[in-house]
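Appendix C: a fully annotated inverse folding record. The material below is reproduced so that readers can follow the format used throughout the book. The structure is listed first as tokens, followed by the designed sequence.
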């Protein structure tokens, strides 16, 4: 983080402020962990802070300290808009383009407060006056940990904050197995455990609370998997009818895309999930090695993210989208099979 931005943020937070803290739409563990940890810190420092999420987040994250105080822009629209319009400081965490907040975008675009971006995705936008962008970081939660260091506030990390930060780092690194996990990441995790993070309890909340319907949906997803060995690729489709048949709830498909990468020889895994309410297919891309799904998603599916984990979308049917996707693979064959 540039020293000029550190000093600007310190000056900004010297006196109590009205603060809004915003994760991206469909927030995951890293988005909620980072926003809630920052919320705990700012509240303790005397600021009036509120986390405003664009929409709901998965049940398996609602145990997190402070989750009950998050405003849902979709369900609590008038109250959320009031908080945003009153905010003197707007933190945007785990995204770097205002379009990532869905229906909140027009509201954010007209705000007069100071924007602070904390994010680890590629190709950040330029809407924030204060930026902390680092694509080499494992997670936004690790960045919030380092942000507190920059603010000389490492000692302010409470057990509640430690639990939130640990959750985001754990989920965004695939339980510490992704390439983004560095020795520094492990040092941060060790310090969070020393500060009160309960690793076993966190793991249980995230990974050991399946419902029968979710496991049945996973079975359906695996049955739908198509393996294209000549392109080292596997993809899964889930239609709205299939989601409805297994009582889909937000977060139920988390991690499904990764199953393709457990197959020997597969370097590229994709899942296409129909969302009839929004009229789109939501697409998740994962890879191992040097194949950049960030570039693939940006080039073809209005998305982006990281080199080995990205998202995208399509307004075509599942059949047409899959046909388009498979038509692209020949041009990437060398990159996928070398």
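Designed amino acids, in order:
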């Amino acid at each position: 983080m540039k020293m000029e931005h550190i000093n600007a943020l310190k000056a900004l937070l010297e006196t109590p402020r009205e603060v809004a803290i915003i994760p991206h739409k469909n927030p995951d563990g890293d988005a909620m962990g980072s926003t809630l940890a920052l919320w705990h810190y700012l509240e303790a420092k005397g600021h009036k802070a509120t986390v405003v999420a664009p929409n709901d987040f998965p049940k398996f994250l609602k145990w997190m300290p402070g989750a009950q105080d998050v405003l849902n822009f979709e369900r609590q629209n008038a109250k959320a808009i009031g908080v945003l319009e009153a905010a003197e400081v707007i933190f945007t965490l785990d995204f770097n383009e205002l379009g990532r907040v869905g229906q909140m975008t027009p509201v954010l675009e007209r705000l007069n407060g100071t924007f602070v971006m904390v994010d680890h995705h590629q190709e950040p936008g330029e809407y924030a006056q204060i930026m902390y962008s680092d694509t080499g970081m494992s997670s936004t939660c690790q960045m919030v940990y380092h942000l507190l260091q920059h603010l000389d506030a490492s000692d302010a990390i409470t057990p509640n904050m430690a639990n939130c930060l640990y959750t985001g780092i754990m989920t965004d690194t695939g339980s510490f197995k992704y390439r983004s996990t560095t020795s520094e990441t492990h040092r941060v995790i060790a310090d969070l455990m020393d500060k009160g993070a309960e690793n076993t309890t966190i793991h249980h909340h995230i990974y050991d609370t399946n419902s029968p319907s979710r496991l049945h949906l996973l079975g359906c997803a695996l049955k739908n998997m198509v393996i294209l060995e000549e392109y080292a690729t596997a993809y899964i489709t889930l239609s709205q009818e299939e989601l409805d048949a297994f009582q889909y709830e937000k977060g139920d498909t988390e991690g499904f895309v990764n199953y393709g990468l457990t197959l020997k020889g597969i370097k590229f895994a994709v899942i296409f999930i129909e969302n009839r309410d929004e009229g789109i297919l939501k697409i998740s891309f994962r890879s191992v090695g040097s194949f950049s799904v960030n570039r693939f998603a940006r080039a073809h599916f209005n998305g982006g993210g990281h080199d080995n984990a990205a998202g995208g979308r399509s307004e075509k049917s599942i059949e047409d989208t899959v046909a388009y996707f498979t038509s692209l693979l020949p041009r990437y064959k060398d990159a996928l099979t070398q």
